[in-house]
Amino acid sequence: MWIFGYGSLIWNPGFSYHDRRVARLDNWVRRFWQGSTDHRGVPGRPGRVVTLISELAGDCWGVAYNCEKSGSQRVMEKLDLREKGGYHRESVKLNFIDGSTTEGLVYVAGPDNSDYLGPADEADIVTQIILAQGPSGSNRAYLRNLANSLRSLSVSDPHVFSIESKVLAKISTQ
Q: pLDDT for 115-128, tens place per residue?
């Protein structure tokens, strides 16, 4: 069983795995459109975390984890609890750097959940990220960890890096 991580699962999977590989999903893009009231924000003051948005010519790079079959039920239980804030599982085709592919699972939060925030002006996203704090830490730390993890994978994500740049610019003037 393969699990695809494109947000905090990249740097903090929180489960045991047999193999870890850089992977790509076609026709999806990563966006800060999901509210977080259980990790990077609180009810009434949600943080913004990433979800996947279907986009025909898009791609999203991240990390795929191969979980041993014997422990896959335990992994799914842990992830279902961790991703309970609006995410659901989807089956996807994972594309590896060597050209091979396999089926995997990914957690996606769509507009049908109560924590979905959707698109917003980047200035509004930046302000929300700067101010949000939750049980798992600051929303700024989430953004920093995500951007640094993508750089360590040699992955470019214009949306994430634009938000990061604007957050850094805004906090340097405060």
A: 999 999 999 999 99
